[in-house]
Amino acid sequence: MADIHSERLQEMLVDLNRAEERERRFKEESNAILSAISAMSGARSKIEVFNILLRVIARYIKFENALVLTRSNDNENYDCLVATSTPCEQLPWGIGGAFTRCVAGETIIVFDAAKIKEFAFFNSRQLALCKSAMLTGVTVNANESLLILMSSGKGTFSDNSRHVLERFRPLIERTIIDIDYRERLHTLVSVRTQELYDSRQRFRDFASTAGDWFWETDPDFNLSYISTPVAGLSGTDKNLLRMLTSNPAAWEKLMISKSRESGFSDLEWKLNHLNEEVWYSINGRPYYGRDGQLLGYRGTGKDVTARKSI
Q1: Potential cystine with 151: which of 25, 131, 142, 156 (Cβ 3.0-4.6 Å)?
Q2: What b/e string do you get for 121-136 counting C-beta neighbours within 10 Å, with b at 16 or more?
Q3: Do 267 and 281 form a contact (C-beta atoms < 8 A)?
Q4: What pLDDT shows up at residue 246?
């Protein structure tokens, strides 16, 4: 009887030690998560945020490369938000069963990436970097996001690795939200900066060709902007070249500017408006995008009917 009680006592002590070890491990992981979240608040870029996450995970899970993919509901493929491996950044990550399960809340271990649809397009070099992988996902702001950990060795990830990654889901979700926010903010700032640049350039061009009203066209001289209603220019045909067909000299001058991508000045032509002759004079110059591509022409115009009537 004493032996039975002693055996049960030993079993209870083993269970207690295991429980204490689990509690210690969970406490350590919780502290790591809180420490990482605190560090992310001071990060200056999405790369810093990503690296903070990876440093925490690397303390508990062995891996060599990692990346975050994201996809909005109206996109067919996933885009790479951030990655530790350049070859993985430009890959056409499509939708597959494994990815769908991950964004639904599962954490999946891939023992042989070559047999999984999502990795089927990998070449031999890329497969060498990803012989095994572990994936998990979240849905943030109606966007699907995935974290993929990769290893060049087979069988790197275990059930214990999967359980650890699942416990880190709050940190992973917080990281992806942060990266997604920074990416959207960067895109918004870039768009607004480009709009400001275009606006300033537009008015610099207008100022250099001063007149009564402003105009802008595409590369084929289709009017895209007029600052104020102009008599005779309110019809359905907005192409300057076609407007000038009855004015051969002006038409030829505009065609020369088009062929040379050059500016022009004092280009005069006559229009009939409400059975009366109206004369306009326009000045213009080409304008370009930041990549050097011709975007169109812009300039100013003025009514010179009074002068032409003298």
Answers
A1: 156
A2: ebeeebeebbbbbbbb
A3: yes
A4: 78
